[in-house]
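Take a look at my tokenised protein here and describe the backbone shape.
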Amino acid sequence: MKGPAPLRGLRVLDLATLFAGPFAATLLGDFGAEVVKVEHPRRPDPSRGHGPAKDGIGLWWKLLGRNKRTMTLDLSTPGGRDTLLRLAATADVVIENFRPGTLERWGLGWAELSAANPRLILTRVTAFGQEGPYAHRPGFGTLAEAMSGFAAITGDPDGPPTLPPFGLADSIAALTTAYAVMTALAGRDRTGHGQVVDLAIIEPILTVLGPHPLWYDQLGYVQPRTGNRSTNNAPRNTYRSADGRWLAVSTSAQSIAERVMRLVGRPELISEPWFTDGAGRAAHADVLDDAVGGWIARHKADEVVAAFEDAEAAVALVYDVRDVMADPQYAALDTVTEVEDPELGPIRMQNVLFRLSETPGSIRWAGRPHGADTDALLTELGLSAAEITALRTEGAL
């Protein structure tokens, strides 16, 4: 029998907006944390209006806001401040992404929050971190994608630096933030008191780019843009089939590279001295791309996939979302799952990130309307109907 979700009993206040901080809270909520989304009464999280909508309902929010109860609170008002401190006293984690100094200006800095709850984890997610010459600049994930070096190595050699068409840096930062929260909670288990997590969005994406700083430090090496090719191995590219489908081939392992050459009818290339390691193969990518690309161009996509599978070589069709939704492997994993939503009916979205055999996560509900749980949450906090009315009159709700 399955046990309760592993983070059940953990309470998270999500004060952040847009993507990195809120997505981190979503990841915690997926595995049982009670997440309370706190939004400004008159300025909801902008993600509610990002991207396509159906019947006036933002679809991105349905994903980002899942498993969260929603309430409104103007933290800049006296009533909002006092209410937030009362909420913080009941919470384990607060996630915020205001510019450094904003919470302090409202009387909600670490001193006040930790006084209200010494075991609290205050998680601060900003573009540039809490310290340094850029700390007070406004910033988004796009700037991190530029400053980390990601854009500089992405795109064709003779083209411009290329930014991703989605929130890559924010998403990497969100994953890192969720990890940071769990690490801080583990620390709390040992020390008995909370701490501040300071996460700068410019840092996690730099880390996942690999040893670029080390290469530059030791060799003065600056990785160039190489398009779909790799500087570390070849063949590695996208190739077009006879029926117009694009396929991606990767040969990070030497044995796979050899299998591909045999498959495409060029086994003699395996005997070349330069073929014995990835760097040597990358230096001769033109030859290898001609061999692989020429063979793929003479076959239909399903024939290519079948042949590579028989040869135990790595290939994948380049999917768009229509292919993802129809793919049998994703279906077997339930990667895109159906959620019943009171506003839109059955909707499909990405499932929780990983499977646990004994204490699995789940999507309990999709993103709820703005402030839907305000009165219920305040009542649970012990506020009377008169106190809630007073807060509303003040403009705090």
Q: What stands out?
A: The longest helix spans residues 168-191. The longest strand covers residues 34-39.
